[in-house]
Design goal:
heterodimer; A: 257 residues; alpha/beta; B: 98 residues; 3 helices; 15% helix; globular
Chain lengths: 257, 98
């Protein structure tokens, strides 16, 4: 069954986007990305270590020819910082697509909504393909869509919390109104959370900590791949309606008496 | 000024500030100048270009981006962009992140 995930005009087989933070080493990171089946991989933009510039680099392990590299603006608390980071990322030569984060608060890492909207506007104007991290708020998502973002990425729970899909009803409202892909970004803790996101009809899910901080990240990466596939198939299949009372699966006719 | 990217530091591998990384003085002698590179002072040869610096740092083959005094310098200008004493440079690359 051909069911591509279409993002900014490009088709992907995988509906799982994975991060590259918090891994023990580059090799574990590489193996987890492979096991996840992800084709889009997020990275952060940071200063080169001048004292040891020959140190191995992430992109020695995650080949940009093989994966779509999605730079983020994690750690940016102002619009200006986020814009600066996106422009630097584009200059470093991995394309125009950015994961926009304008963080509003250090403890929750919830997004600064007006800041995110302002930065998104400017980035779209500058020709970026903007994927904004945002609250699971239908109004903000609509605004970001109207601005010209390529997708919206509502959180399911705080970044790195692993709390799962805390507000499926908001996600459903977002999905009903959205004409661009909806990618759950942040909050997924285990494979069933990923499945739920896809069952709801979300187009994809983005995660980092749930894989990187599992006891066995490679195995969890595979579990996430399967969870995403299962959730997507269940969504396409269309679940049965929920009923309060039982409904026997075996016929009453022909019972032995 | 330079500290703006500094707000992104908390998750990164960026070393402590205000450390002075000096090349051997004999390398440049009287023709040395000081720039600020990724938040640290650094002595380098007068009039050197960004391309020279990038090569000296062994970053020639890396996917990096360079900002000089808050302005992004396109790769094709590295060879012609001459550094001046007191210039603030940022050289960034990609690291693990979510």
């Amino acid at each position: 069954m051909k069911d591509p995930f279409v993002l900014a005009g490009k088709e992907y087989r995988s509906r799982l986007i994975v991060g590259t933070g918090k891994y023990k080493d580059f090799d574990e990171n590489r193996r987890a990305v492979e096991a996840s089946g992800a084709e889009i991989v997020t990275v952060a933009v940071r200063r080169v270590n001048i004292t040891d510039p020959n140190k191995e680099n992430l992109l020695d392990y995650i080949d940009p020819k093989k994966y779509t590299i999605l730079p983020n603006t994690a750690g940016c608390y102002t619009v200006e910082d986020a814009l600066r980071t996106c422009r630097l990322a584009r200059e470093a030569g991995v394309g125009d697509m950015v994961k926009l984060e304008v963080i509003g608060d250090q403890r929750t890492l919830f997004p600064d909504i007006p800041g995110t909207i302002e930065a998104a506007k400017q980035l779209v104007k500058e020709g970026f393909i903007v994927l904004p991290y945002i609250l699971d708020d239908p109004i903000s998502c609509k605004k970001l869509e109207d601005i010209g973002c390529a997708a919206v990425m509502p959180l399911a729970a705080p970044i790195g919390s692993g709390l799962g899909i805390r507000n499926p009803y908001n996600l459903r409202i977002i999905l009903e109104h959205s004409r661009i892909p909806v990618i759950v970004d942040a909050g997924v803790g285990t494979a069933s959370d990923a499945a739920v996101a896809l069952e709801l009809g979300c187009d994809a899910v983005l995660m980092n900590t749930a894989i990187a901080e599992a006891k066995d990240p490679i195995l969890m990466a595979e579990a996430m791949r399967l969870g995403v596939e299962a959730g997507r198939k269940a969504y396409l299949a269309g679940r049965m309606p929920k009923k309060l009372y039982a409904s026997a699966s075996s016929p009453m006719d022909g019972r032995i008496e | 000024m330079i500290l703006l990217l500094g707000t992104c530091q908390r998750e990164g591998d960026i070393a402590n500030p205000s450390r002075v990384v000096k090349v051997k003085p004999t390398d440049y002698g009287a023709r040395a100048m000081t720039i600020v590179l990724n938040g640290d002072e650094r002595e380098c040869r007068e009039n050197m270009t960004i391309a020279d610096l990038v090569t000296e740092l062994g970053l020639g083959q890396r996917r990096i981006a360079v900002e000089a005094n808050r302005e992004i310098i396109p790769r094709e200008h590295y060879a012609t962009y001459r550094l001046h004493a007191g210039d603030h440079l940022e050289i960034v690359h990609f690291v693990g992140g979510g």
